[in-house]
Amino acid sequence: MLHLEKKQMKDQSKKVANLKHKEQLEKSRNAQLMEDARKREDNLNESSIQIQDSLRQKEERIEELEEALRESVQITAEREVVLAQEEQALTHSEKQVEDLLNAMERVKQELDVMKARLSSTQLSLAEKEGHLTSLRAERRKHLEEVLEMK
């Protein structure tokens, strides 16, 4: 019986040792799992910080781009106003040129009419001067005749 008890004791010791070994392995595995979990958590925290930094940088870049876009839109609007003013001034100038060309054409036509009148008047004047000259000559002739009669 002693032998049986020793054997049972030995078996029990083996079982205890085996259980202790399993427990040790389990503790080691749990410690490794905890370490892995901690590392993953650290990595996640680090990734989260990196993502937050990246988001912040992107938000800052978006704000810069929005500001640049606002400035560009304002500059474009100002240029469009200037362009509209220049187009209006050009249209006004073209209208003035057209009006001046029309006025010049009217003056040219009036000049042609006046030239025709002048030519006609000069002919009439030449005729009248010729007639006047002949009348003077005739008068002189009559005066001479009258003087000779006396």
Automatic annotation (TrEMBL):
Protein name listed in UniProt: ELKS/Rab6-interacting/CAST family member 1
GO process terms (BP): neuromuscular synaptic transmission; regulation of synaptic plasticity
Presence of keyword Cytoplasm: yes
Main location: cytoplasm
Keyword tags: Cell projection, Coiled coil, Cytoplasm, Cytoskeleton, Phosphoprotein, Synapse
A family per Pfam: Cast
Region (Disordered): 1-30
Location in or out of the cell: Cytoplasm, Cytoskeleton; Presynapse
Gene: ERC1_1
GO molecular function terms listed in the Swiss-Prot or TrEMBL record: structural constituent of presynaptic active zone
The keyword Flavoprotein is assigned to this record: no
Coiled coil, from the record: 48-145
Highest taxon of source: Eukaryota
GO cellular component entries: axon; cytoskeleton of presynaptic active zone
